[in-house]
Amino acid sequence: MTEKTILFRDERNAAPAIPRVLETPTGLLGDALARPLHDLRISVTDRCNFRCVYCMPKEVFDKDYAYLPQTSLLSFEEITRIARLFVAHGVEKLRLTGGEPLLRKNLERLIGMLAELRTPGGKPLDLTLTTNGSLLAKKAQSLKDAGLNRVTVSLDSLDDATFKRMNDVDFAVADVLAGLEAAHKAGLGPIKVNMVVKGGMNDQEIVPMARHFKGSPYVLRFIEYMDVGASNGWNMREVVPSEEVVRRISAEMPLLPIGANYTGETAARWRYADGSGEIGMISSVTQAFCHDCSRARLSTEGKLYTCLFATRGSDLRALLREGRSDAEMSTAIAHIWRARTDRYSETRTINTDGLVLGGPKVEMSYIGG
Ligand code: SAM
Ligand code: SF4
Ligand code: SF4
């Protein structure tokens, strides 16, 4: 096994213990810091057709990289069963991610299955997906028809040379913009556009991006470059704080802060003083939002992670494939969430090497962004 494989998958992740006393979900699960469980992110593939320098750098994710074999992936039936258990525990929002989720074959079938789930109160879920947009022009309508509510599209620059340097596979901006338009036409809104800002690489694109999306149907959100995974060579000097992003945009297009839509919202919202829409700031590094983080993550092979920066997950697939009952699985999930104390971003130091972790962090393409 190469070192690259060790960085990616942690084989020590065990199946969670099943407590002897089984419990019925109440829909009101709280973790050790009283944070509810509202949001489940499901990674449907660890593969991607981009090699974004901050996520899947080419030097690591090369042709010899050991991606998960097909048999390791959760089937659509397995994903839906796990999602149903989480919904009974209070999850109201499902986000499909990856890797690039649109690369997973027949994804529409999974969307159709998830769209049928209902909260204990009988409400449909908020079913959404994050994509690099490369296949969106082709797939937007079929995704909508299958039951997807909305999409978030990643786009780091409007300048082709910069965008190509970032996706590292020569993919053109115009194709992502065409995907955005198709998603809008199909009714997959409100659509968010995520821009990861990496200092010295695309920060000169902050103002042009704001200008382009101001007054459009799309809500642009700036994401601070994070120290996820173990392969992007993260450095605090390349983080452009959200405060600086707001300052640069405001100098040309004045901004005013607005309140959050709901508790646990990751983006701080700002609106243009002239009334032409809003933008969001995801300040994962400079203003951590762990205090109301209500997100769980399910990896492509069925491991449950309670934090984006986790070093270990709990193997739910093992429980599924051992033939455990819904009651047993549900009880195991409840115990994992109740024990959750994660607040990595709030305890992060300037030099992440200074943090004592239980091993290498899992990659974002595996755990899902
Ligand atoms: N491939 C899809 C995409 O790019 O939208 C979905 C998966 S991607 C891992 C999810 C989100 O994570 C994207 O918006 C991406 O820009 C963001 N992301 C990846 N690596 C990041 C990093 N190091 N810092 C901040 N955001 C990152
Ligand atoms: Fe792929 Fe998304 Fe990661 Fe870029 S950010 S390499 S598109 S998974
Ligand atoms: Fe949530 Fe972990 Fe991110 Fe904090 S660091 S916001 S706990 S995922």
UniProtKB/TrEMBL annotation:
E.C. code: 4.1.99.22
Name of the protein described by the UniProt record: GTP 3',8-cyclase
Residues that bind GTP: 41, 95, 130, 192, 295-297
Subunit-level organization: Monomer and homodimer.
Keywords from the named record: 4Fe-4S, GTP-binding, Iron, Iron-sulfur, Lyase, Metal-binding, Molybdenum cofactor biosynthesis, Nucleotide-binding, S-adenosyl-L-methionine
Family indicated by similarity: Belongs to the radical SAM superfamily. MoaA family.
Cofactor: binding comment: Binds 2 [4Fe-4S] clusters. Binds 1 [4Fe-4S] cluster coordinated with 3 cysteines and an exchangeable S-adenosyl-L-methionine and 1 [4Fe-4S] cluster coordinated with 3 cysteines and the GTP-derived substrate.
InterPro entries in UniProt: Aldolase_TIM, Elp3/MiaA/NifB-like_rSAM, MoaA, MoaA-like, MoaA_NifB_PqqE_Fe-S-bd_CS, MoaA_twitch, MoCo_biosynth_MoaA/MoaC, rSAM
